[in-house]
From TrEMBL, chains A, B:
Biological source species: Clostridium pasteurianum DSM 525 = ATCC 6013
SUPFAM superfamilies for the chain: Class II aaRS and biotin synthetases, Nucleic acid-binding proteins
Role description: Aspartyl-tRNA synthetase with relaxed tRNA specificity since it is able to aspartylate not only its cognate tRNA(Asp) but also tRNA(Asn). Reaction proceeds in two steps: L-aspartate is first activated by ATP to form Asp-AMP and then transferred to the acceptor end of tRNA(Asp/Asn).
Protein name as it appears in the record: Aspartate--tRNA(Asp/Asn) ligase
InterPro entries (UniProt xref): Aa-tRNA-synt_II, aa-tRNA-synth_II, aa-tRNA-synth_II/BPL/LPL, Asp-tRNA_synthase_2, Asp/Asn-tRNA-synth_IIb, NA-bd_OB-fold, NA-bd_OB_tRNA
Cell compartment(s), UniProt: Cytoplasm
Family, per entry: Belongs to the class-II aminoacyl-tRNA synthetase family. Type 2 subfamily.
Amino acid sequence: MKDIYVKDVAALEDGTEVELKGWVHKIYDLGKISFVKLRDKTGIIQIVIDESLNVKLRLEMCIAVKGKKVKNEKAPEGIEVQVDELKVLGKTYYDKLPFAINAGKIKAALETQLDHRTISLRAPKITAVFKVQEKIADAFKDYLKGQNFTEVYTPKIIASGTEGGSELFTVNYFDHRAFLAQSPQFYKQMMVGSGFERIFEIGHAYRAELHNTYRHLNEYVSLDLEMGFIEDEFEIMDLEEGFMNYLFKYIKKECSAELKLYNIELPEEVKIPRITLFDAQEILLKEYGKRSPKGNIDNEGEKLFAEYVKKEYGSDFVFLTKYPAAKRPMYTMPDDEIEGATRSFDLIYKGLEITTGGQRIHDYEELVANIAKMGFKTEEFEFYTDNFRYGMPPHGGLAIGLERLTMKILGLDNIREAALLPRDMKRITP
Amino acid sequence: MKDIYVKDVAALEDGTEVELKGWVHKIYDLGKISFVKLRDKTGIIQIVIDESLNVKLRLEMCIAVKGKKVKNEKAPEGIEVQVDELKVLGKTYYDKLPFAINAGKIKAALETQLDHRTISLRAPKITAVFKVQEKIADAFKDYLKGQNFTEVYTPKIIASGTEGGSELFTVNYFDHRAFLAQSPQFYKQMMVGSGFERIFEIGHAYRAELHNTYRHLNEYVSLDLEMGFIEDEFEIMDLEEGFMNYLFKYIKKECSAELKLYNIELPEEVKIPRITLFDAQEILLKEYGKRSPKGNIDNEGEKLFAEYVKKEYGSDFVFLTKYPAAKRPMYTMPDDEIEGATRSFDLIYKGLEITTGGQRIHDYEELVANIAKMGFKTEEFEFYTDNFRYGMPPHGGLAIGLERLTMKILGLDNIREAALLPRDMKRITP
């Protein structure tokens, strides 16, 4: 077992004996001695190997070294380890690495990097993405647990789709046809009703969308929450705004090195303007001559509107509110004031939708009527609607795409860069 | 939004105005006044409703009440709320509840309880199961994060099965046939190799096993970990033993009320005997006249052996070690000392296997040779084995079934009781 990491060496006294284990990151072979960069989970350190040790190192070999920590002004960070003993722990079996990971930015197409994901992930700048991603999920969890939310695990194998069966992957489940959940929507609501009141889930969601774009994955991690006993959808927006403030503080503290690597400065405070979809469409038309599709804003519109909000409000975020009922799922609560609108919202961050949320219908009869009105067969949803017969509190919630949020925080170009092992229309390996 | 919960009322001064929201748990209608038990996420409290408020309450209705907190020696816990205002937040639409949840143990078959899961979950004793389950997952996460493990999310849609395709659900993935991951095994190992060194994942796993027993689910939550730079499989056992000690302390602290509800006393310290499978088989034969299947112990054997270990070692746990290679997957590290054995183990807790783990083969050539030796097509596993060409440290890991651990800690009879919404051969709803 490892008991010391590269990051711990700097604090040790000069001359201390250490045993380090990691990967051979770089080799400068000077004949009599070699300067080698050893990489582990926590950093990179220079080690000095005398030819008398008689080992033939290759890049990315796994090794264990014993030696003395010494100061050396010429070494990076001013320290190095003079190796007395070296053991190869993991041999290599390649002619040539698929690409270099020790020379700054990887010079290979993203697809090639993903084909060799366990190599590209070794590059410190790419590892950093997943450090940040882990901390986003931690922040989500911490923030919600602090507000009396319960974490749940709901099934991903389901009998009917949330929105009537489109965009679902089918699973051969014994003698049945089942589906992969495109969101935990139904179950989140049911868990609120079953007495948990406030729940969240961090889990996979599946979309059989025929999109192969920079912002779509067919399997992604969804940060989902649902909260009972609300007055309106604005409480859900308040909660998300609170989360974003918590998150940015958390990441600044936990991931300062990673943010620096990506030249990211996060704002001190997040204050998110709330603009109705209708108003946003009007602004797009007036300011940019941009026409929007009925009841929505397209990808180009999202980007233009983000520009506008940045200019007018100084914010990277904007809530678009009051989407029309025709464009929202059948469980969305109708708005009291605006005819045909709903108590719903999207959150746009740097021009990309990262959240959909809103208040849901909680009255059984209203829900069943709305399902019928939208043209679905009510009996197909009885496993869901029947739960609403037994006292369901007013409630609402939201979902944040973890990869999208990671991508936008770090300014990545493609969502595949924010997934350890992305799944898209063409990729189910590695 | 709720700002006060039932559990907070006791600490308030007498006469304080409170607004509580929750479900109608029990009604004693005395005509002029009614004593009602109001239930929320945190507990149950008596509220007193005068007939002048003119509301017809039904069980499980969602209500909000405003009133004064007062002392009343006759009330449970000695306090109640005298209601001035009452609002129905969630109406009910039923003729009769499927079963009573306010009269102690639910008098309905488990299948009926699961058919109406959002009702059975409202019973405080059943809610308690998921409080404990949540804390188990929290403890796993805390314990591992404290030891430099990284949390990861790996794909559940995969191209080939871990053990060659048996017991896999197939997914129609665009033009391909894909599978649901029966474990994150391959990806855990790959992530260790890609520089994370130590990783864990809490996620769903899928087994298309044709078993409908008290201890099988077809979709379950797996607590998975994998650790690089180990010497042997005993380090993985040490880690798990450490986790169990951490877990029990954690649960005793966080879930004392829930443990009390189930009459569970957890031991102060967990010290787990380690016995080879061969020795265990010999003991079973000698002590109980019980013959075991070749290279394994069956369900009855596990129970008998648990009895033996409890008697001889005073332990609810036992590690069975050194399983034969023929009974372990192709990635299992062969043992150096015992011919035909592997560096593997199971953890049995109160007579049920809750963990499988061990050291894995990390050398590329050895792995490929072992895959071929076990009769699989090596080319089908190239997306996995190719990663071993680039320096893989010695490593091992384990997986704990979350529902099994929950079930055994609380002494539940059926694993379905430890899943919010279980999936088995016959159940994909609700």
